[in-house]
Amino acid sequence: MEKLEKIDATEKGRNYRILLILSVFIFTVPFWAGLIPGSILHMDIVNLMVLAGTYACAVIGLNLLVGYAGQISLGHAAFFGIGAYTTAILCTRMAWFPTWLGVILGGLVAGIIGWLVGVPVLRLKGHYLAMATLGLGEIAFILFTQLKGLTGGTLGILNIPSLSIFGLEFDTEFKLYFLIWAVVMLMMLLSINIICSRVGRALRALHSSDDAAEAMGINTARYKTMIFVLSAVFAGIGGALFAHFLNYIDPASFTFFLSILFITMVVIGGMGNIWGGLVGVIFLIFLPEVIQGLPHWIPLVPESLTNFGNYELVVYGLLLILFMMYMPKGIAFGLSRGTSYAKTKFGHLRDRISARKYEGH
Amino acid sequence: MKADEKRNRVLWCSIAVVALVIALALSLKGSKGLQWVISGLTVGSIYALVAMGFSIIYASTRVINFAQGEFSMLGGMLMYTFSSQVGLPAWLSFILAVTVVTALGAGFERAVIHRMEGASVVALIIVTIGFSIFIRAVAKWIWGTDPVKIAAFLGEEPLRFLGASIVPQSFWVFGFTAVAVILVFLFFNRTLPGKGMRAAAGNPDAASLVGVSTSTSSLLAWTMAAALGAAAGIIIAPINFAAYSFGVMLGLKGFAAAILGGLGSAPGAVVGGLILGVLEIMTAGAFPSGYKDAVAFLIIILVLLVRPQGLLGKPEGEKV
Amino acid sequence: MSEQDMLDIDGVTKMFGGLAALKEVSFSVNRGEIKGLIGPNGAGKTTLFNVLTGVYRPNAGSITLNGSSVTGLRPDQITSMGMIRTFQTIQLFEGMTVLENTMVGCHTWTRSGLFSSGLKLPGARREEEKIREESMVILKDVGLDTRPGEQGTNLPYGQQRMLELARALASRPDILLLDEPAAGLNQYETGELSQLLLSLREQGLTILLVEHDMGLVMKVSNEVVVLDYGKVIARGTPDEVQNDPKVIEAYLGIEAD
After folding, report:
1. For a FRET experiment, which of B43, B62, B204, C156 has its CA 20 to 30 Å from that of C220?
2. Which residue in A202, A208, A226 is closest to C107 by CB distance?
3. Is-contact C47 C14, C-beta < 8 A?
4. In terms of C-beta density within 10 A (0-12 exposed, 13-18 middle, 19 or more buried), how is residue C176 classed?
């Protein structure tokens, strides 16, 4: 059925190609990034990319939930935090505990909790769902702070061991980079497959209309819960990797602002665009660094920008507003519009040709 | 009409529950209970004002304004600047602070919300979150991070009342909230623009017949919400201090109260605010204080699961 | 009910507030027939559809599909049992292509879940191919196979109606509930629709048809049920119904055109 594959509009083949090219690019970054002298770069690309990779896990899942299934969550920092605390507690309390198992359990525990809260909460819609998930995020944050015996309270957990898989130590950023981005790319692959499948179509259908989706035999409650749990698992894994990367966590890393940051990454990158999450994460992680670097690169830019951290949030807030006003579909959509313009012109022709072939059958 | 009856029943039930809780606190804990109730109602009044801001904007534009708490924060900080730093009299500082915040709210509506007609719910949520981050960052820049103290409007000496001590500012809070609630009620039910705004939410054509376009309605709503929010922030400041970061929690609590009462319902906002305030203080008495917010949010989620449209809200379907 | 009944509606009542939108409605749809359901605006036809498909729960009465009760089940459960509907106002899925919209219809008879789809297991892959193949065949049947990659919501109105029909057919239904499928169609398109409905009946599909276009209803229906103020006021062959004085009074007398 090759021809049918071609006229399928889900663009699966194209996404696989992008994924391949992107993987090749991403996995070469650490090799050349180190070669650029620090006096020019003024940022630690590998370090930033590792951080971006942990966030990307959460954002990819969230994009499936918000962008495809249309269910908002303002509390995903909770699942990120649950993943981080799960592995941190296990690996610091029991020195023998395999760290890779901690990461998997981090995802699992986040998923189980996601299921427990998702079943009741996903019956809510729109702003009410936003409120409920926001509340869950706050509750999780308070528990991280208050369950002192377990989480170490506001001091957090120190000396979290680095990741190691069957004796293979990921104790440097350089090594960790490959592991984390391999996980991210795996999640991307899963997402692409899901979106272009029966499950993905069911999710997009219920995004468009609950009633029409149910009329097609789709158990909307079940699918909402399913994707909520999957996004929680992704976030949990991301959080666990985050804990092993920093070797230290405290509740301040998992506040309401992180939930907002995740949502913002999805939206600025491009909601409902499979690449949107990744684009959003990388854009928002590197933006402050680039602005701080400007005075080094361009002589006319005032030196005071190197203290960008002081008014980073002013720019950040403005940026959110401007993006929503002038590019509400996100960066990824803008990027793909250019290429798809050429493709649609070509595509119409292609459709007509393949249609003629069908009539011949 | 059946739905209205049911909502009335819910209204009375929730009032009865609150009354019961209060009575219980009074009988079990005596003057300490009274103290709790009064602090709870004070905080609750502020939540109610913030929640009304959420509801007014939501009712006329279907936007959740996540910057609502920042209006209150700005109100408090400006009050500090005008009264303590510049040295203006309290009443003038109050008017000036409210005016500045109101202008900011109205300006944001014209510059941003007005131009985003037809945008998705998520986009509008993000825009207001962006606005709140912006306001907070600017406030931090101007005023720094330390909380500031604002003098009470009428003396600091606590009054003794049946063994409980009450700060006089509480009476300002109660008085102002009552007046604001009545004014908002009269505006929406007795004046032509108010009725027009209510109509504009449901039926733009009918609204334009009485001379209120959705555009005017949206501007009016943001203006009122900003004014209410600023005033709430100013009158609570002498009790709670003021700092650039205080808007976040106040906004979350106000939002929670609005959702609890039923988004878009002004009476719901008041009921939701008062319930939340009393609940918080009560749970602070019963649980370790760190869990105060957790219990409040947990109860809201539970209420939503039983009544997905909030206590006094109208059921409706919507999607993100 | 008899053996040959596909759908049996028995004493269904639906109240809104204090008002009865449906009052003890009873009739059955035989296997392999097209049953017309007509009545003036507000007679309760769409309400009946909503009760049949589980959107509303009836206050009284029972609904039996293919010998098993579906009263009080969820819409998705009822659809999975072989009864699928279309909507009076078109409800295509936004952001999905013509082909994808049809593929959603295949949901009921496919099984791939999150894991098999995500990991692209051979079973899921085979199923996906089958879905795509069958969807293309159905699109060809309704004449929409020329531009499968077009956004569904970008199609002209008449074609959107046909796409909704295709999507419903993709679920391999036993009985099809059509809510005014000819609304907004021009004369030519209505003619094609009636041909399609007749050929679907040939293939053994049972259809319950709500329609305002009397010409269409009378042409394709084996039997017609007339609803007025939530009650069945007449039933019979198209000829009998058209000559029934009660019907003429309630309906045709006012709206005959």
Report:
1. C156
2. A202
3. yes
4. buried
Alpha carbons B225 and B74: distance in angstroms, whole number: 13
Farthest CA pair distance, chain C: 64
- Expressed in angstroms, the distance from the first to the final Cα of chain A is 13
Asked if C84's CB is within 8 angstroms of A200's CB, the reply is: no
- Chain C within 8 Å of A355 (Cβ-Cβ)? yes
Q: Does A207 touch chain B (CB under 8 A)?
A: yes
Structural domains in chain B?
2-306 (1.10.3470)
pTM of the model: 0.88
Number of helices (H), then strands (E), in chain B: 12, 2
Identify the sign of the CA torsion A76, A81, A87, A90: negative
- A125, A128, A131, A136: CA torsion to nearest 10: -60
CA distances from C204 to A249, C4, C35 (A): 65, 13, 13
What's phi and psi for A274, nearest 5 deg? -60, -30
| CA-CA-CA-CA torsion sign (C151, C155, C157, C161) | negative
Q: What's the rounded Cα separation, in Å, for the pair C134 and A97?
A: 51
Give the tens place of pLDDT for each residue, C192-242.
Answer: 999 999 999 999 999 999 998 999 999 999 999 999 999 999 999 999 998
* Chain segment C214-223, per-residue pLDDT in tens: 999 999 999 9
Our CA angle for B159, B161, B163, nearest 5°, is 110
Residues comprising chain B, all counted: 320
Which bin fits A133, alpha (ψ -120 to 50), beta or left (φ > 0)? alpha
Neighbours of B136 (CB within 10 A): 23
Residues C43, C228 contacting (CB under 8 angstroms): yes
Angstroms from A83 CA to nearest CA on chain C: 21
Whether residue A221 contacts residue A194, with contact meaning beta carbons closer than 8 Å, is answered with no
CA distance C17 to chain B (A): 6
Strands C34-38 and C60-65: unpaired
pLDDT on residue B205? 67
